[in-house]
Amino acid sequence: MSDRQPPPPQAERTAPAAPTQRVGIAVRPPHYGWNGEHFVSDRLMAVDRTSVAGLPGRIEIVVEGNFVGVVADSLTAVQDAARRLRLEWQATSRVCQGDNESLPMATEASPQELAAGHGESSSVHRHDYGWPSRLHWGDAPGWVVADCSSQYLMLQGATVTPEALIQDLMTLTGLPTERIELYGTTPARASGLGRHCGDDAAVDAALMSRHLGCPVAVWLDATYARDVHALGQAQHMSLRANLSESGDITDYRFHQAHAPGDIAAVGLWLSGRHPVRRTRTDGASPFSPYAFRNAHLKTRRDDHGTGRHNEDLTEIQQAFARESFLDEVAHGSGQDPLVLRLRHLDDARGIELIDSVSRRARWGELPSPAAATTPDRLRGRGFAYAQVPDRHQRIPEGVRSAWIADVEVNRITGDVTLTRLVAGQDAGPEVDTDRLQQTLQARVLGSARPLLGHEPAFDEWGDGSEGAHHVDLTTGGALAPRTGMPNRQSADDAAAASLPASLNDANLAPGVAVIANALFDATGVRFRQPPFTAGRVREALKDQTNPLGEEAPDRPARRPGRRWLKAAAVTAVAGTAVMAWPWKGAIAPINRPATNLYSAETIERGRLVAAAGDCAACHTAEGGRENVGGRPFETPFGTLYSTNLTPDEETGIGRWSYAAFERAMRHGIGRDGRHLYPAFPYTAFAKISDADMQALYAYLMAQPAVSAETPANALSFPFNIRKLMAGWNALYHDPSPFEPDPTQSDLYNRGAYLAEGPGHCSACHTPRNAMGAERSGQYALSGAMVDGWEAPPLNQQSKSPVTWSEASLYDYLRHGATPLHGVASGPMAPVVAGLGELPEYDVRALAHYVAVQMGAPAGDSEAVRANAAARIAEAESGPGDMTEGERLFEGACAACHTDTGVPSFSSAKTPLALNTNLHSQQPDNVIQSILGGVHAEHIPGLGNMPGFADSFSDSQVITLTAYLRARFAPDQPPWQDVASHVEAIRQNNNNPSTHP
Prior knowledge:
This protein is of the alpha+beta class. Strand 20 and strand 21 (416-425) form a beta hairpin. Helix 7 (308-333) runs parallel beside helix 12 (511-523), helix 27 (883-892) crosses helix 30 (954-968) and helix 30 (954-968) packs across helix 31 (978-990).
């Protein structure tokens, strides 16, 4: 790239188009992170390039220090290569901050902990506060594209801290700032409150582009959340004060470890290019607007990045710690938080402003009954104050800002909503409070979610790739160029553009603190470090009583003390005894919850959980109303009937409390104390998270109630004795919740959660032992028979004539059909219909999880397509010695299943030579399709195949089945005893008591 010309003059520059060729992924070490003072990581010892040598297309490996990048021609290809690349790492001996879960700033303080005063006298208050290195992984998924040479760097991607990113890119390339071009740097909803992982993706792309001499694109999505956790905290602030008997604060101490605490991009550290950090103490003392007796304030300031953004961020961080601390002191000493501040404020302008804002917000008044806290909604109010110097760093002439915020917390999902904001400042234009609230709702609580939002987690719905519809993730096709891309901006211009007009003149220093204080007022939990994500809020509230005021069942209380090992052993034994004990007490019935108890968001989340769990498919009888129950299930032990899931108080679950519902879902025990049978897959539903479980309960309770008695089960002795299920549960049921695999990606863990939890894939695709329990080990997902249909293996025992790929799995699960494998029919048809309700990211996660179990590649290679074409060509004619079978096929099947050249109203999209059912060891699915047809209403434009149960005799079905096997699966042995299979399926389908 050394022969490239310098970029054209500024007036001639235009934004670079996204490349159509090279896509990169950075492969991180197993352990890496920021330990508070230094970056530490595992050491790269060896790279086995032969592990990806056999993959199709161009695969290139970039190695620099401990940085490893993989570059290929498409996103799916590079993902496959990154999974297969074998690396050898030497473990680091130092602990990374991101791996340490006991850090004080990363925890929440309960009301009991606050009251205890951390073991000190009640007159002494000491607390630590933190600020993360990355607030979140990004605002939305998207491409980050770098084109780097020895003379210039052009970068396309979103960043909210362009100054810090330019500093990192200068360190990486040695280029001056005027030769670094940023495009599309700051979306309108940028947070401006700290860095996100768009900067890390940018440095990754630049590193790979610099090595390869061509543009490289990196896909920024939730997988970068690993960098968020690894980098941990960039800022540590310790505060301490004494409280006199009169309630005055004395001996106030404020110590800040770094300011502003920027941590460079991960790629810089891994490649060995550590940024130069110069520590200075001149003029570094933080400012406090309050007059405390014997106060001491100290900050160690680092010169890593300069500019207004860093000054603003430092002020926000200091205000967050100071105002949170004062709020804690006020609540701990029983004082009004606003009054405590006023008694230590001797600034007339500040006192007047606080008085004005408090009167406007009606501080101290009780909320109206309509706004009062409800069982699943918590409401709180917080106050924060700040004073910042003017542009000449003059304190007396600076701006005073006072904010009062009201928040609403959804106890089920953890989501936080800013319901009201009263903000006032005494200098500059008058703040448009309504517009400021709307802007903060989008920036702090909206889809960007930098402070109050969703961390990527296994039970978050739609996070990850939502909104990324401009890229084809299946084929990894050409990267779509961004439309309306502005010309190159300077860092100062970009930083200014990141602030909406309503915020340009607003002092934002109190913003984070006021929400933290309001959150404490609502929940009683003190959050001492942002972000205040839904996951953190939900986790902090998990140990409190549930939304209906009931204690969760079967959850042992936490026991403090150092004899934790003994306590754990006793608890384990006691838990086993409880599970094995055959008698379970009934949970008292309740009145049906009000339909408006839960929010629309919670009900919608529950609807998605129900769709993923395919509840209606099992709890809806043929021709019956949805979820009313009565569908029969034939088991080796007799016939079971699904129950009424509607909130009818007499025949449904209308009088079930959440505690009763959760016990049934996790432990298989009904409200009346009777054991449920594992045909209801509580063995999988136990893995559902608390938030999803409560949302599912809310959704079901919000549906219309339908009165319908469930038919009595017809089970043989001794299986009709429900108490025996206690022993079965003790042997075969693990009620522990789902735990994500830390060695796997977020996409994999999301797919695993959906498959192993609500989706209960193993319930159909895993064979069972003599006691009806799923077999484990090598038998997991190895295929099974369900309702007369074969659920094929979802592991490496797949009998598909053409190798499955992750792309084909996605097409099958999302659209119900794939060109190389066929159409979802039989029991899979309603499953696919349910998956159609899920966000795209969730279906991709399921496909990814199954692909890993099958050892499937990312995409369909040319070799796979050639194999498919060869099989189709071979099946153009049938065996010559099966004339009767050929006659039946030509008369009933050929018009749709072969290319006769004659127009047809219906045509099978997948050649029978690629049909998995014809290559199975069992003929059941083929016989089911011949007799009952294939009904694919879930696939628009495909049409249906009629059944021939009434027009074909048993002998004709046997003949046609044998012919189809011989012609379209010639490499497989003939099926044996087809007649008995036909007889059994006809008998089952003709029996009204067993036909769903």
